[in-house]
């Protein structure tokens, strides 16, 4: 039987691969590159919230640490190699996630949410109030990293393709991870941690490993963001970004990797839509209002997120007496 979800994901990535030649505009390439980076960030949070049941409100800290590490470690003497700068940036975020997780995972529920938020704000104020992070002015990236002569991230198209490669790699990695024994343990923790403990599983190491992996993936997204923009500031660690990532995965559909990507694209495109002065004129300054209303309607009418839209449409068609096409008997039109 053909897996329709796998076909959809494959077609989606193929469209992204072909997009630079379909559009050709620098604005579109830059926008989709940014959205793909946020999609990686959303996938990192999906591993915690949708797959493990850990609602983390400090994910922006790992994103920001990855971005700052990319800038601080690259130096001013010449372009650094991607081969060591990317793992170092993701590793810095993973180390902080390991430290945060080892303490915060000893709490549960709303206390876990508050502790992760507190650690994120600590990281925010370190880069905001000390010379290390350049204060409120932030830091510029003098040289974008390279890999020999064939991968130079100064070129928008090269940056686009590298971001797409990282997005596909992250999606594939999480897909394999969640189908492994480790991933099934995470699913069990999300469903009923007490039952997992009763069957002999020590759940803390699994949760800590998931938390650390999630931090590393967020650090990867931060690295890409810093390289794309060539600039970082403390707002990358602000709790607002953690909230935006949470909205992305809820909007797309919790518990689905493709939902995290769908939610990131929907959220960012809606944001661009409501910010458009050509469409909304002066009202574009109040874009938060329009975006908020759409999100409220989406949550109200699509409780399973955007990935559940086909099922909702099928149920509506069945309820109205209209038989969906795939339900027609043989020979039907």
From TrEMBL:
- State the InterPro entries in the record: ABC_transp_permease (IPR001851), LivM-like (IPR043428)
* One CC-aspect GO term: plasma membrane
| Top-rank taxon | Bacteria
The alphabetical list of record keywords is: Cell membrane, Membrane, Transmembrane, Transmembrane helix
Q: Tell me which CDD domains the record gives.
A: TM_PBP1_LivM_like
Q: Which Pfam families match?
A: BPD_transp_2 (PF02653)
Subcellular localization is given as:
Cell inner membrane
Q: How does it sit in the membrane?
A: Multi-pass membrane protein
Give one GO molecular function term: branched-chain amino acid transmembrane transporter activity
Q: Where are the transmembrane segments?
A: 6-23, 35-62, 82-103, 110-127, 157-178, 204-225, 245-270, 291-309
PANTHER family the UniProt entry points to? ABC TRANSPORTER ATP-BINDING PROTEIN, HIGH-AFFINITY BRANCHED-CHAIN AMINO ACID TRANSPORT SYSTEM PERMEASE
Q: What is this protein called?
A: Branched-chain amino acid ABC transporter permease
Supply the source organism for this entry.
Thiohalocapsa marina
